[in-house]
């Protein structure tokens, strides 16, 4: 319920995921949010593919490997965690 602007993304817009390819299908006529509580990672991407597509807050679209480390994905999903993540950490 909180509203945040780009200035509240202190990890940087190129290090913060805004949109993601979810594992479970969503009706395009009724978009839904992927729930993330900061602890339990949501199921992302197609389980049959090695990578999935994400959109970052800076407008860029990149792929992330299914095998990405939990702590890297955690860092990318939080806008103010203070973590440093390089593209080499998830773009393999």
Describe this structure in words.
With 92 residues, the protein is mainly beta. The chain has one helix and three strands; from the N terminus they run βββα. The chain has a three-stranded antiparallel beta sheet with strand order 1-2-3, with no helix packed on it. It is globular and about 35 Å long.
Summarize the entry for a quick read.
The protein is built from one helix and three strands. The chain is mainly β. Strands 1-2-3 form a three-stranded antiparallel beta sheet, with no helix packed on it.
Task: Write a concise keyword list for the protein shown above.
about 15% strand; mainly beta; about 90 residues; single chain; globular; 1 helix
Characterize the biggest β-sheet: 3 strands, antiparallel
Number of strands: 3
In terms of DSSP E residues, the strand content is 15-25%
Low-confidence stretches: none
Q: Report the helical percentage.
A: under 10%
Mean pLDDT, to the nearest integer, reads 83
Structural class: mainly beta
What is the H-and-E element order?
Answer: EEEH
Q: How far apart are the first and last residues' alpha carbons, in Å? A: 35 Å
Radius of gyration of CA atoms, rounded to a whole number: 13 Å
User: What topology, given as strand order, has the largest sheet?
Assistant: 1-2-3
Q: State the helix count.
A: 1
Based on Cα principal axes, name the global outline.
Answer: globular
Q: What's the arrangement of secondary structure elements?
A:
Elements: E1 17-20, E2 51-56, E3 61-65, H1 70-77
